[in-house]
Amino acid sequence: MNKRTAALSTVLGVLALSTSIAIAAESNVAPLGTGDDFEISTYASNIHDVTSKSAYLWSYTQGEGKNLEKVRVYSYFYVNGNLKHKAGDNDAEYASVDYEANVAALHKARVTSSHYAYNRVGEKMTETSEREWPE
Questions:
Q1: Nearest alpha-carbon partner for 66 in 128, 126, 127, 117
Q2: Model confidence, pTM
Q3: Averages of pLDDT over each 10 residues, the chain, 135 residues
Q4: 133 and 108 Cβ atoms separated by less than 8 Å
Q5: Count of CB atoms situated within 10 Å of the CB of 119
Q6: Side by side, which strands form the sheet with 54-64?
Q7: DSSP assignment, residue 80?
Q8: Cα angle 114-115-117, degrees, rounded to a multiple of 5
Q9: Which of 101, 126, 105 is nearest to 47 (CA)?
Q10: Which residues, other chains included, contact 66 with Cβ-Cβ below 8 Å and sequence gap of 6+?
């Protein structure tokens, strides 16, 4: 009986030690992001400097937060109802794209954009924006 008791005691001791090590290791692992530690702080699609033959179309995304990995913007630029250009940009905190529209006669312009912010574990936030001329 003494050998059995000693063996059982050893097995239980090793099991308790393994459990303690596993619990300690789990408490030191950084949790996945919660969405509260990064954000899209500002974003927009814009049309400026409109004349009878041209317009400047652009969009941007700006992010912030301690776990912000990068931001992204992807935009579609339409002139007189036709898709003329599409572009995207990634950067650490601020991303922007633009298009200079030049046509014989400008009747309308539109930019539609998707805005993203990613944290260090790949979680993302998204927003969309659109601007048209004439409004």
A1: 117
A2: 0.73
A3: 61 53 50 72 98 98 96 98 98 98 97 96 95 95
A4: yes
A5: 23
A6: 39-48, 54-64, 94-102
A7: T
A8: 145
A9: 101
A10: 37, 38
